[in-house]
Predict the structure.
Amino acid sequence: RRYGGQQAQGGYGYPPQQQPYGQAPQGVPPQQHGAPPPVAPGGGHGRGSGPGGPNTRMLLIGAIAVVVAVVVVIAVMMSSGGDDKGDEAGQDTAPTADAGGGEGEKDQPEEPREDEEEKPVDLPKTDAKALKLEGGTVTASDIQGAEAGTYVAGFNKVGAKLTWTVNGIPEDAGYSLRVSYGVPGKAADATIFVNGKAQERPLNMDNFAKVEEGEWTDKWVNTWAVVNLTKGTNTITLSCEEGNECDANIDQLWLKEGTQG
C-alpha cells in the first residue's frame, strides 16, 4: 500500500538508489565546472578588473613618464653636445699668443730675402792729380772736359809713371780698374803694376774718340783692365815701359767689382 508519490529511497531492506556519476542529487541544482566564483554583492570592483581599471591607468601613466624622461635626457645630451662643438669651434678660431701681430714677432729680426739683390760695394776712386807722379808726369789743365778739372800730362816717354795707393779693398779678388784718358788721335798703352808686380796684359788706351792724329780734344774716353787685389791696402801703378806706346793724358782712376769692366 502506497501513500503519496514515489519515495526517494528504496524500500525497507534495500539500499538507497545510487545516482549516476556526476549527476547531482535531485533537488540540487547542477554546478558548472570552471565557472567564475560569484561576485560579492555591493557593486565594487576588485583588483584585476577589466579594461579601464586602476591598474591599466597606472601602467599607462608610468609608461608616459618613462617616455618623457627619455626625451628629456636625449634633449639634454644633444644640447650639451652642441655646446661642446661650439666651444671647440671657438677654440679653433680664437687667436693664440703665437698668432701674427704679437709683440713677440716685433722683437724677431727679419732675415734677408734671398731674392733681394745685394747692393754694390762702393770701391775707391781718385783723380790722377792726387797720385804719386814720377818720370816727368805733371798736372795740367789746358784741355777742357776733364772730370777733375786738371789731369796728368807728360805720360809719353819710358819711365813715366803714376802710382795709386788704394785702401779699403774688401776681399781678395779680381777687380776692374777703370781709367779716364785722352789720346792725340792714335792708340796708346801702358804697363800695370799691382803691389810691385807687372800684370800680363797692358792697359789698352785706343783712339775710341776717333780724332785726327796729333789732335788733342776734350773727348775723354774710358778703358779698363783686370787687376788682382788683396784685402786691405794695395798699390796700382801705370808705367810707360819699353815697348809701350804711352802718349796719353790721364784724368781719373777707379775700381769696380768683378772682372767684366
Remarks:
- The first strand starts at residue 125 and ends at 127.
- Residues 1-50, 93-105 have pLDDT under 50 and may be disordered.
